[in-house]
Amino acid sequence: MQDKENRKHIFALADAKVPVLINLRDPIGRLKHGINHGWYKSNQWIYEINQHKEALDRVTYGGQDKPHLDLLESVLKNKNIGNISIWEYHQTIQEIRNASSIHYLDMQEIVGKRTFDTMTQLSQEFRFPLPKEEDRKFYESKINNQYRYLLPIIFRVNEEIKILVEQSTYNIEFILGLNLSSSIVGGFLAINDYNKNELLNHTFSILQDNMDIISQLNLDSLGLQIKILADKKQSQEIAYQANHSNLKNDLQQYLFALKEKIQSIETNKVTESQVLEYLKEHKDLRKIYQTYFEKEFVHIKQVRPDIVESWKYYQEFERMCAELD
């Protein structure tokens, strides 16, 4: 309730006539995403080099270790994966009294290689900064992927040597907003704000002049899209540790464990079909979602029926409701 009141207050402050852009997604796909999304299990970012199990135990799904369809009820109770107000499209546009126009953007327009061109077009229509060509890779990458809560992390070899593990698709410098172009809003990717400063303090020297540990220690990356970096000034000490300690073996064992964790995350994801089947079997829950969608999708169906018609699983949901009710 407090969030709704805050939303109304913010909208009331808009005293100029402005266009409004609302991002949409197939609601059944959005439910699937919410279940698979997970959240941080802890705010720990730094681990000892042999703490492989702890370093991978970073994701929770409503108190469980893998996605589960019972989370569909949590949405209604404002727990774990958001709340049903995320679909308050019709109610929201009623609250934006100074909207000069309402525009809808389907999520499929900002996925993968379509994203950069879409953002370029939107920047011209809504007059925000053009995306820059050098940032195209970022726009086309999948930010919320299977590494989301697992990386970045830091392994502490000893008091002097710390090793950074991050995604190879974009680096932590990008994430923390240290060196972003003006067309990107930084500091919002992959990590929350709780321990951002702690993470930054321990990685700054690594970011300034780093070396690739995977190649230096001849590790098998197992096809993982990651980088393992250390401060280049510590190259001799790292080489020594690799020859006189378990450093190389510890890192390789971590990579094996990370590969297994990634495969487990992918294997245990629920599908849209499973969401539909669950709603089919739970009539009361289905009726709540059906009523809510019918109320909140009124304006969308009036002005952008093409978007609603493109939602494969929502169309199946509507047919299912008609047949069962």
Automatic annotation (TrEMBL):
Pfam families: DUF2972. InterPro entries: DUF2972. This is DUF2972 domain-containing protein. The lineage of its organism: Bacteria, Pseudomonadati, Campylobacterota, Epsilonproteobacteria, Campylobacterales.
